[in-house]
Structure formats: C-alpha cells, structure tokens
Amino acid sequence: MSEATQIVAIDGPAGAGKSSSARTVAEKLGFAFLDTGAMYRAATWWALHQHVDLEDPEALVESTRRMELQMEDTPKGTRVLVNGHDVSDAIRTPEVTRVIFRLDQNSAVRRQLVELQRRFGERQPTVAEGRDIGTVVFPKAKCKVFLDASIEERAQRRARQLEEKGAKVDLEQLRAEIHERDEKTRNRADSPLRPAEDAVILDTTNLTFDAVVDEIVRLAREKL
Ligand code: DC
Fold this sequence. Notes:
- There is one protein chain.
- The protein is about 50% helix and about 15% strand.
- It is an alpha/beta fold.
- It has a single domain, classed as P-loop containing nucleotide triphosphate hydrolases (Rossmann fold, 3-Layer(aba) Sandwich).
- Strand 3 and strand 4 (about 75-80) form a beta hairpin.
- It is globular and about 45 Å long.
- The site of 2'-deoxycytidine-5'-monophosphate (DC) has 12 residues, from helix 2 and helix 9.
C-alpha cells in the first residue's frame, strides 16, 4: 500500500462529532487514530506552561520546537504527554481553547505539527481528524470525509458532553463560542477549514453516532 491509500482523512468544524466517530472508525478498520486538534492543544498548553508571550509568533514557534510530544491511544481516549507531563485533561480546558488561535493561525507552528502528522501517517494506516487533513496534511488520501452539522445540534452535543462531566452549561454561550471558533477557522489565511474537492460531505445533524460510523467505514472500504 502506498502512503495515500492508508489514510482516512476526517475534517469538519468543532462539535461535528469528529473525534468520537474517527476513533471508532479506526478501531473497526484496525487503523491507528490521530487527533490533530490534540496536538495544537498540547502546543498551546506547553506555551502557557512556559509563560511564553502569546503575542510573540517567533516565541511560539520556538516553544513548539522544544515540545516533546507523545500521544498514545488508550480505550479511555488519547493520552497526551508533553515533556513528561500527562496533559490529557489539561489540554481540554477553556483556558487552552481560548488562546489556541494564537498557535493554530501561526504558519510556522502549523508546519511543525503537519510534519509530525505526516510522519505518523507514513508509519501506519491511520484515521486522522482535524481541520486540514484532506486539504493540507494528506491531500492524496483516497478517503476524505467532511463531517458537518447545524450549529444548534453541535452546541447541544457539546452541552451533553459537558453535562456528563458534571459541568453547568449555558447553551447560548456555548453556541456563541462555537460560532466564534467556526469563524476563526473558516476565515484564517493558512489552512482555512473547508472540504477538500474530493471529500464526501456528511451532514450528521439527523444521523445517529452508529450511522455516521457505519457510513465512514463503508466509504473507507469502498475507496481504500
Ligand atoms: O478539534 P479541536 O477542538 O481539539 O481543535 C482544537 C483547535 O485546533 C481548533 O481551534 C482548531 C485547531 N486545529 C487546526 O487548526 N487544525 C487541525 N488539523 C486540528 C485542529
């Protein structure tokens, strides 16, 4: 198999269900799973931890270069280690999410992380999810899926996830936050969120989780 045939690329906006469905698709296909958002989150956590000036793009590039990142898939989710610290939970905090755009809009930071993502995908058959997998990271992937859902549905899914963890949720505020992140990722200059020309667009608004997984597995088997 060549590099291009071993990749399932899953992109889409925040809250479209990429992570959970991509993980299950990877299990069903026997492929590795790569959560690229976790890599941007890890680099952001590391910059905060090192007290890097977030308004200094060069300093962010340098701190990302000094980051030693290990990611390990476990049944409970991706375990993320940064320079020996287990940051699996810390990278999901609002503190990280609020400032992540400083790194995900930095082209030199992106280049470093894209390089790591390509190396990961070259080593093993991989289901990779993110925002630019089909357009930038693996443009030759044979199976590309763009998962979308209405903003109401995405806000409600996020709310359910947070409530399961015991958090109190303001649905209107969640919706506004998702809208703001959508705008930032769709309108940025480098690697804006958009479906690759050869991606299959799957609107999951009215689909169950199992139906989404089954459809991606079917597409992967058909195309790879
Ligand atoms: O999927 P997520 O919410 O964990 O992603 C975190 C942030 O990283 C999000 O603001 C978009 C960005 N991201 C990106 O720019 N490119 C990727 N391939 C994955 C995530």
